Amino acid sequence: MTLLATGRSLLTGLGLNRFGRLRFEPAEEARFIQDGKAARQTHFLISGIFSLVAFNLFLLSDWMMVPDRFDLALRLRLLVYTPVALFFLVVSWRFRDFALQLPAAITEWVAMLGGVFAALCLVAVLLVTDSPYAGMYRGGLLPILVFGTLVMRFRFQLAVVFCLSLIALHLLTVFGAQGVRPPYPELEAPMFLLLLAVAFYTLAMNFRTEFEERLRFQRKERSAALRRELEASQARLETLSRQDALTGVPNRRRFDEVAWQCWQRHHQTGEQLAVMLLDVDHFKAFNDHHGHPAGDQCLRLVAKALQDTLADGDGTLARWGGEEFIVLLPHTDEVVAHRVADRLVQSVRALQLRHEASSTREVVTISAGVALGRPAMDGRDLSAMVALADRALYQAKHEGRDRLVMDRTPKGS
Asked: In Å, how far are 175, 176, 184 from 180, measured between CA atoms?
């Protein structure tokens, strides 16, 4: 990439397009305008109040430099410009919420036209005055130009329009004045060049100000995007830390969190819950005969079948380790626990996954051990319930596998 192409890419990224306009892509431009809308309205309001005061203070220069037209200047400043400016300032203040709903371009144009209107008041006096100081009085356009481009900080495009308007008004007062010929005509060219120089320098500062504003906005946008990506990554990592990588079901850590909360609730309500331990029958033989990739796929399919079976209820399934899974059933009794465990055993059998190394069936099966208890009455903790379920699972395997066994240990023992 050439140096020129690199520079163009950088400027485009910061909001300067190929025609030299400060502008982002449409979607980002809309966010930029909306982001600064309220702040710019407040800025225009405060700046407008100060500009109105300063504008009327220049009545002193009217009295000293165009005494023949002071009455006209007085009426234009106090009876024409001031009421109109006050109207817009009061409306912007009293109906701020409504004004914020308007397109931002309306506020920008109203502010810019307010500056042009102020310049027109000076032009009206200059076109009819016979004062020999008219040439210097024309310099009153300079503070209006500076105030608009640097204090009000019109958007750069409007600032260019504003400066061109004031330059045109300056020329109008030079060539359209009806008064006497100025005593110092040689000052006309320097005054015009001064206006051009001030316009150029203030526009350069205006451009730089808006450019840096857009740069800060873009940095803020990128920071916000990075923060959102980081939060999303953290959320994914948090999910992954509680999810078994192979089967996609919750892992042991997640099960412990859910089980502890469930145990506490049942301890308060006195309700009964069930813990089930499920084991894939002859899984080592399956791995040895079909290979570990097939074994991993087998565990994934078994986990999905178990999860789908529990989908209609409020049970929690997790991978306990190796080929073992654990299920927590809250708010249940022996009949419901037996029915759910039986459905789980049948769901795996229904997969019809061939298991040629099994001495139980020709398909993959599971054994289940189920323990029930009341946290508030039995005097057992969760680890004790898991131990009872594990003992029932051992018995299911001893009785021939592909079945469920309910723990019958007397409560309180």
From this structure: 12, 11, 12
Q: Report the predicted TM-score, pTM, of the whole model to 2 decimal places.
A: 0.62
- How high is the pLDDT of residue 71? 95
Say if residue 180's pLDDT is above 60: no
- Cα–Cα distance between 329 and 344 in angstroms, integer? 13
- What is the mean predicted confidence (pLDDT) over 38-60? 93
Q: Which residues are designated catalytic? A: 323
- DSSP code of residue 130: -
R_g of the chain, CA atoms, integer Å:
41
DSSP conformation letters of 296-318: HHHHHHHHHHHHHHHTTS--EEE
Please list the residues that pair with 280 across neighbouring strands: 366
Query: What does the CA dihedral 54, 170, 63, 87 come to, rounded to 10 degrees?
Result: -40
Neighbours of 88 (CB within 10 A): 18
Q: Closest by alpha carbon to 164, among 106, 112, 105, 108?
A: 112
Euclidean distance between CA atoms 311 and 304, whole angstroms: 10
Instruction: Give the bridge partners for 194, in sequence order.
Output: none
